[in-house]
Amino acid sequence: MNGKWFLAGTVVGLVWEGIFGQIGRAAEPAGSPPVDSWVQVIEDERAIKIETDRLEAVIPKKNPKHWMTGIEKGSFLDKASGFREAGDGLMVVDWLMEPGSDQSYAHLLSAPDGEGIVRYTWYENEADPNRRYYALMAHGSSHRKRIVEGPQLCHRMKPVQPELIRGKDFVAVRTTYRFAYAAPGRKPGSQWTQLVVFPLGERFFLLMDKIDAVNDSPEMLLRNDTPGCIRHNRGDTFSEIYLSYLSGPKGLRIPASEFFEPFPPDRKFNYRRDTHRVPEHFIRAYRLRDPKTGADGPWLAGMTLEPSVVYEAWCNQRPGDIIVMILEVHGKPVQAGDSFRAAHLVGYFDSIDQMHEVYARYKGHTGLEVDPSGWRLVK
Description:
Elements: E1 6-7, E2 10-11, H1 16-20, E3 22-26, E4 40-43, E5 47-51, E6 55-60, E7 77-78, E8 93-99, H2 129-139, E9 145-150, H3 153-156, E10 163-167, E11 170-178, E12 181-182, E13 191-199, E14 204-212, E15 217-225, E16 230-231, E17 238-243, E18 252-255, E19 271-272, E20 283-289, E21 296-304, E22 310-313, E23 316-317, E24 322-324, E25 326-334, E26 339-349, H4 352-362, E27 367-371, E28 374-378
Antiparallel strand pairs: 1-2, 3-28, 4-5, 5-6, 6-7, 8-9, 8-15, 9-12, 10-11, 11-13, 13-14, 14-26, 15-25, 16-24, 17-18, 17-20, 19-22, 20-21, 21-26, 22-25, 23-24, 27-28
């Protein structure tokens, strides 16, 4: 690691990151069988379960416990502490979007299967005050977004057939999917690719989301949950949240009590690239708590490895028992045929300092590549 390739068990003393802008690990030479005593993979028609020496995780193919994308709800286990994530899964992906309103054509929005496309401006004229209130708490009243292509992948994605890639010191899973429908004036067909790499000996995984676009947009963006939402009852599953990019270079530590009442995403703890300075590190984490004993566990962190790709990010309490940690990437002009991507690191840490140490090791990368010879992060 640390920007060096490891080939056939020999450290090659050349810092590739400084020369090629890549870091990674290599697997066994071609033709050698993978050494998998540190990892077990169980694959069936529904999902792929990966158990490494440090973690467990499940990537669904169909019929998920909650969402289809990312790491399945309740499956991400830290073997060192026995804790699992406290939400609905990790690195969950939504739509392709852009700023703006869909109000002028909202009546035309429908999916081929008859399911309506979820909209973000419908509640402007909504008569039901309860629905207006929920929409305000969920989406805020500023910086509106509209959908370019759907469906919301986490919610309505059809079954997929991920590709499993194994090497000496890693296991990777690549999933692809094409958006099935689009807003009026756009066409469907942009491809989403998610690549997840589980390295030997680590309490984290690396992940890339990539879009190959078939539409033009002045500010196309992809929305996800980084690392994931938090389900709680007045802070019983977590004790605090850490956002590295707010309140100066040391970041902001927020006690659970700040999330006992709902508030909209644009009221507090909101980040926008056009209103904030791009930070050195972009880390979002929450400290797990045992709901039975109240004892603190490890931090579960999601890191976006190139801070400048973050378009907007928020951390707000919706009505009910959920804190939403939405993050949107890119938000720049796109023409049909263009691609954009973001790389993340998600896992368990014992301290905030440890998070920053790991971040510094991998900082500055937007892409992730893998083949049987190894994996590498790419700038």
